[in-house]
Fold this sequence. Notes:
alpha/beta; six-stranded parallel sheet; 8 strands; 14% strand
Amino acid sequence: MKILGVKIDNLTMNEVLWKIKGFLEDGKQHYIVTPNPEFLVKAQEDKEFKKILNKADLAVPDGIGLVFASWFLGEPIKERITGVDLMEEICKKAAQEKWQVFLLGAEEGVAKKAAENLRRKYEGLQVVDIRTVLEMTSFCIRTSFQGLSLLFVALGMPKQEKWIVHNLKKMPSVKLAIGIGGAFDFIAGRIKRAPKFIRSIGMEWLWRLILQPWRIRRIFKAVIKFPLSVLFYKFHKNSS
């Protein structure tokens, strides 16, 4: 399905994990994006970003706004899949399958703390934090890994998605790359996630605003600009 011209894969978490397993077994390189309302608003003004989102091997709906929009547009999304939940599930699977995991991005020390917490949570997980994008590229070019490698990139959208597309081929050991936004902050414990009840009723944006008031412009795009864009899109589609 598409929302505001951006592809969204309508899958459950289990279906997504099954597809990821297939990606890691086919010998090719893949990338996954995790669109939320802010992504779709940005894509309307950034054509390169929109193209990257639509060419992704998988686009999972991260953001309750996409779920509400899908209902309004008559194509209900099966399940909201947040970036942090997807990352946790992949790391759990990676520990079982012996996939190697790399963390790139976030603020100083956050990726390192996230890696430490993941190792404690998932016994046997091979996870390495990389400090800079330059180090990541040269590290992967110089090193030949045994087994399959995944890369989580937390540089913020659209920078992380553009970086992945422009650099993935330089890192042949990486078979799957995912732009993961602020997931490292949650896993590292730097930012506390909203309680499940708050998330279930679609008010996580308010929780984030209280904890991070500097995000007000971004939240405005997600909770005001995005719904208005969807409303205009449907009105225009029905009248044409």
